[in-house]
Amino acid sequence: MCVCVCVCVFDDRAWYPLGRIIGGTIYPGLMVTSAAIYHILNWLHISIDVRNVCVFLAPLFSSFTTIVTYHLAKELKSPGAGLVAAVMIAIVPGYISRSVAGSYDNEGIAIFCMLLTYYMWIKAVKTGTLFWSTMAALAYFYMVSSWGGYVFLINIIPLHVLTLMITGRFSHRVYVAYSSLYVIGTILSMQISFVGFQPVSTSEHMGAFGVFGLCQIHAFVDYVRSHLNKNQFDTLFRAVISTIAAAGVLTLAVLAALGKIAPWTGRFYSLLDPSYAKNNIPIIASVSEHQPTAWSSFYFDLQMLTFMFPVGLYFCFSNLTDENIFIILYGVLSIYFAGVMGVMVRLMLVLAPVMCILSGIAVSSLLSTYMKQIDDVKVEKKKQRFEGNYFMRSEIATLFVCVMSVFLVMYTLHCTWVTSEAYSSPSIVLSARGHDGSRIIFDDFREAYYWLRHNTPEDAKVMSWWDYGYQITAMANRTILVDNNTWNNTHISRVGQAMASSEDKAYQIMRELDVDYVLVIFGGLTGYSSDDINKFLWMVRIGGSTDKGTHIKEHDYYTPAGEFRVDKEGSPTLLNCLIFGQVYTEGGKPPGYDRVRNVEIGNKDFELDVLEEAYTTEHWIVRIYKVKDLPNRGA
């Protein structure tokens, strides 16, 4: 029922004048889960507001993630490894950034779904039963309904099966597990309207389909081998394999040429080529979570896990089982895409769980080894009082256990500090430290949205960059042109063109889009670096990426030396575009100093003709302008 309602809802307050079909542009898992919990609690006569369900959903599922991490690591190594991994993932900043209270996003439940699918897959491989394979398919369906990152999952599991084939470990258990998972999981995933026929028509899913076909061929070959002698089998095998390979390649080529198999999406290309999105699809590259991961972020979000990760890989390699091969592949691919390629910050969410699991295996194995040395020495001390080297063994083992305990305590302290400083404050309410160490609160966003809600007509249309669309819709209850869903690149491009154009050209675009108010973010007074000037080049790139934006050229906004500057050396095109005037109007009065760019602005005399200032918040972070009507009489 919830899914049907979600699919049919049309939002006419977003993406004006297009609107948005909710079910066709989102993954429904998050909302269906929230609604289910809400109705179950009310059925149990536990009265709770649906907003509180949404606020505490991510912390609830993070506790589920801790439990499933324990069971996954237990299947891979031992209960001790599971316990250490569970403790690590419970506080690791790389995951807690999306599991704090109030973080109502797909990733809040998706990481649990991903690890649950992995756990069910490991159980299916180890047992070879249809029950665990079906459970893995159901977990995969939940994952598909929750997050687009399911593409990583449906590629790593086939890669695991392919690796088992290459290494000669393929068995009837693996055949039953993967065949059942692929068939049931694919059919179920196609029931999600946002996914539709993608599992059988897009390049991202063709690897899984190809491995499924290889499984059937492998099983058929094993069956034929058992009924023919070696010479007959070799002759038949060469003929059949050559025919099937040629037919398969030809079929894929024809389907691709006819457009039946869609090419890889921009996000998938970005995994293989980090520069692809920036050069070809700037809307993808402009998302902060799709920015390359800084190396410092690994230590900041993972701390000692970065050092224990290779140790965990070593212990998995030393005991190479089917399930350990899977966790090795998961770990290596995650660290490759998140680190070596430096592709996306968001992949830290995929990396953090496997870092905890492998680190849990490493810490558990090391502590078990050295604790055993201490216990063995006590026994030897009773048996041999005059022989042996038990004294040094005991000292070294004790020292190592103490050092590891110190590292674990430091990890706990680091995670607590990072969580309190970086991930515990709402992004909509900013804070900073004063000169005396006191905390200063900047509540400009809520102030601006409150003003919009109470001082503008209910049908007013607000133009802003897409980052603030959801907030304006929810907190100001006003119609917006673009929002964080970013489903329509052309519409976002039009907004970028308005921001990057001269005032006259921008006014034509705003009249075309029926804009009443324009909202911009300015951090030059307070030092808030995530303002619209620092995002402006993305507006330029996205604005110039469509046919109507051919007049927008990125190089026009740079100085002859190739620098992006807002001082007197800045490009005339930049110093006279709409957004420059919006953020710096009245701010150019003496001294006109921008604390973010650390320069004195270059155009202090910018006067807006087609916009009038409607409201500026206390700290000048949010500025709202009203679009003037056309004059009744011509000039």
UniProtKB/TrEMBL annotation:
| Enzyme class (EC, first level) | transferase
**Which co-factors does it depend on?**
Mn(2+); Mg(2+)
Cite the entry's keywords alphabetically: Endoplasmic reticulum, Glycoprotein, Glycosyltransferase, Magnesium, Manganese, Membrane, Metal-binding, Transferase, Transmembrane, Transmembrane helix
Specify the protein's topology with respect to the membrane.
Multi-pass membrane protein
Q: Which InterPro entries match?
A: AglB-like_core, Oligo_trans_STT3, STT3_N
Parts of the chain that traverse the membrane: 21-41, 53-73, 79-96, 108-125, 137-162, 174-194, 206-224, 236-258, 298-317, 324-344, 350-370, 390-413
Annotated Gene Ontology cellular component terms: endoplasmic reticulum membrane
Domain AglB-like core as annotated: residue spans? 452-520
MF-aspect GO terms: dolichyl-diphosphooligosaccharide-protein glycotransferase activity; metal ion binding
Quickly give the catalysed reaction.
a di-trans,poly-cis-dolichyl diphosphooligosaccharide + L-asparaginyl-[protein] = N(4)-(oligosaccharide-(1->4)-N-acetyl-beta-D-glucosaminyl-(1->4)-N-acetyl-beta-D-glucosaminyl)-L-asparaginyl-[protein] + a di-trans,poly-cis-dolichyl diphosphate + H(+)
Its protein name is Dolichyl-diphosphooligosaccharide--protein glycosyltransferase subunit STT3A
